[in-house]
């Protein structure tokens, strides 16, 4: 099944179990304005509640992944604190949809990711960037504070001290620094910005299709267990793990894979018969 939604600021395409969410305001570095915020909430909710989606690619058009909020729009149209708080709440609907779902998400975060874009990237469970990518916070540069899950997720991703280094300085990490910090999973090379972006997207597709071609339901539940752990005590997490693996073993996919693994192990263990 293939379906596409819209030609506006965020696109959704679904085919063969893969949902592709594309930030689509390249002229504004995919920064979020009011329209983008509402479409983001709708698209992410749609992608994570469909029964035919087993993996999600979070992509972006143009030279950058996401510059966070559209500062020009803030200055002109959304400068009131109440409205900015409301829009952040709308975007947070999509952030929660992706992070709390049991569908693994890979980000193709080529180019620059800054401000709230950092929170959008961290919605993914596996982030791939280009060798030319730069990643940072930069909120304080314009007198603002972190939003869109940056303060909620950054310290969990890289540790509190490193998180403070980003939010208390105007520093942009290089791709290699982001990899070293554990903020991203892979760095992809290219001959120029355009080829690097294409290579990042291609690798993100490979990762998503790896999930789809294997036990994507189990990968999704593993993602959910890790993502949701902070809400539970250690003892509660052990109970949740036990419950989840008990449910998993009853699925047709797991039964077939366990049987296949057992049969292969038995063949390897059987001594060869000599003629």
TrEMBL record:
Gene3D superfamilies registered for this protein in UniProt: 2-enoyl-CoA Hydratase, Chain A, domain 1 (3.90.226.10)
Pfam families, sorted: ECH_1
Lineage: Bacteria, Bacillati, Actinomycetota, Actinomycetes, Micrococcales
PANTHER family: ENOYL-COA HYDRATASE, MITOCHONDRIAL (PTHR11941:SF54), ENOYL-COA HYDRATASE-RELATED (PTHR11941)
The protein, known as: Enoyl-CoA hydratase/isomerase family protein
InterPro entries according to UniProt: ClpP/crotonase-like_dom_sf (IPR029045), Enoyl-CoA_hydra/iso (IPR001753)
